[in-house]
Write a structure and sequence with these properties.
Blueprint: E1 2-3, E2 16-25, E3 28-38, E4 43-47, H1 54-62, E5 67-73, E6 76-77, H2 83-89, E7 91-94, H3 106-114, H4 122-132, H5 135-138, H6 149-161, E8 167-171, H7 179-194, E9 199-202, H8 206-212, E10 215-220, E11 223-229, H9 236-251
Parallel strand pairs: 1-11, 4-9, 4-10, 7-8, 8-9
Antiparallel strand pairs: 2-3, 2-5, 5-6, 10-11
Helix pairs in contact: 3-6, 4-6
The structure holds adenosine-5'-triphosphate and magnesium ion.
Length: 252
């Protein structure tokens, strides 16, 4: 594994810390030995080619995919907890495919997210989520499935925010989105970082990663092969070569 920056990964007492993570399906281990931390207000991008194990790693972190390793959220070990308890503690995921209920209204989707917030703070959490996405107020009674792709992605993020997250993980949120919506998404992610949320962004859109990431790790074949800081993202050739090596390995 290569390090491009000279700074050690900060050991975050708060935020998300994961150590020696693996993910597996039955006897097949698809990623292994992955460690990183994300401090409050920091955005870590997880990049890598198709099949690298990005979604599986997110699943191992949130408990929906079998795995091993230590996961600590704001100083509390959570890896022994079932998935639903990790969500309740604040480890939220905007999954690949968004995780909305398309036939339910915008309002119902948001209220479902808010169910994870303590009852006395639900209205406040909903208001906070809507402040970031005011267009949702005008679509309050519409079915989520009637929104455009970009609007659905924003609703999926708002639904997670309504649950009062302490960490946000997003799995390829730009899939199928127009460049102008990707720029809006970048603005949203910046705002959330400013509010102090640690964010793990799984993404193959290099433009978005360059715009918002503080640090990045590259996963190839289930292992971290490169990590670096924001400035290192400009070395597109080096990162592209890692992808190409993966493609070449698949061909031979
Ligand atoms: N449910 C499953 N059962 C068995 N193998 C799986 C399952 N889901 C994924 N895999 C395998 O695990 C490996 C990693 O897949 P994963 O979806 O995590 O990669 P990814 O980096 O998210 O790829 P993509 O960029 O295409 O989303 C792949 O070889 C894939 O075929
Ligand atoms: Mg994936």
């Amino acid at each position: 594994m290569s390090r491009l920056d000279t700074q050690p990964t900060p050991a975050a007492a708060t935020g998300l810390v994961c150590e020696r993570m693996s993910a597996r399906y039955g006897s097949l281990t698809v990623c292994n030995g992955i460690s990183f931390s994300i401090a409050p207000g920091e955005l870590l991008a997880l990049i890598g080619p198709n099949g690298a194990g990005k979604t599986s790693l997110v699943g191992a972190l949130n408990g929906t995919v079998n795995g091993s390793g230590e996961v600590t959220l704001d100083g509390r070990r959570i890896d022994a907890l079932p998935s639903w308890r990790r969500v309740g503690i604040g480890l939220t995921t905007v999954p690949d495919g968004r995780g909305l209920f398309p036939s339910l209204t915008v309002s119902d989707n948001l209220r479902l997210g808010a169910l994870l917030t303590e009852k006395s703070r639900r209205d406040e959490a909903l208001t906070g989520a809507l402040d970031l996405f005011p267009f949702l107020k005008a679509r309050w009674g519409d079915a989520a499935g009637a929104l455009s792709g970009g609007q659905q992605q924003m609703l999926a993020i708002a639904k997670c925010l309504a649950s009062s997250p302490r960490v946000l993980m997003l799995d390829e949120p730009t899939q199928g989105l127009a460049p102008i919506i990707v720029d809006e998404l970048a603005e949203v992610l910046r705002t959330l970082c400013k509010r102090g949320l640690p964010i793990l962004l799984v993404e193959q859109n290099h433009h978005l990663v360059e715009t918002v990431a503080d640090r990045f790790i590259v996963l190839v074949g289930g292992k971290v092969v490169l990590e670096g800081g924001q400035a290192d993202l400009a070395d597109r050739d080096r990162i592209a070569n890692l992808y190409l090596q993966r493609s070449a390995a698949a061909i031979h």
